[in-house]
Amino acid sequence: KSRLIVERGLKELGAKVAIREGLRKAGPVVTDNGNFILDALWDKESLFSASDYETKINEITGVVDNGFFTKKKALVFIAKADGSVETR
User: Fold this and answer.
1) Of 3, 17, 21, 76, which sits with the fewest C-beta atoms within 10 Å of its C-beta?
2) C-alpha angle with apex 63: 30 to 88, nearest 5 degrees?
3) H or E segment at 85?
4) Torsion angle, alpha carbons of 31, 74, 48, 35, to 10
5) What are the structural domains, with CATH classification, of the chain?
6) What is the Cα–Cα distance from 85 to 78, expressed in whole angstroms?
7) Quick one: how far is CA 10 from the chain centroid?
8) How much of the chain, in percent, has pLDDT values that exceed 70?
9) Taking the CB of residue 10, how many other CB atoms lie within 10 A of it?
């Protein structure tokens, strides 16, 4: 049921939506938590920026995460020879 709510929300944003199908197995891709992955495709003449889409998608009830990552600060862990870890 939540998948249908998410699909409708993405379509309202102008996306063409499809459930991601597995390449090496029959059926859809299912996450470790039992969720489906939905692929959303917009025309080049999109109404919003990637940052705006990220915000709007995250506001849709049922969305767990998205693949835009425009607002997340990059965090890098660097392993040192002495066993310590540097974070940037």
Assistant:
1) 76
2) 90
3) strand 85-87
4) 10
5) 1-88 (3.30.70.260)
6) 5
7) 12
8) 100
9) 23
CB atoms within 10 A of CB 5: 13
Reduced to 3 states (helix: H, G, I; strand: E, B; else coil), residue 39 is strand
Nearest to 30, CA basis, from 21, 41, 18, 40:
21
At 9, list the tokens: 């929300």
Residue whose structure tokens are 């102008």: 14
pTM over 0.85: no
Half-sphere exposure of 28 (CA within 13 A, CB side): 13
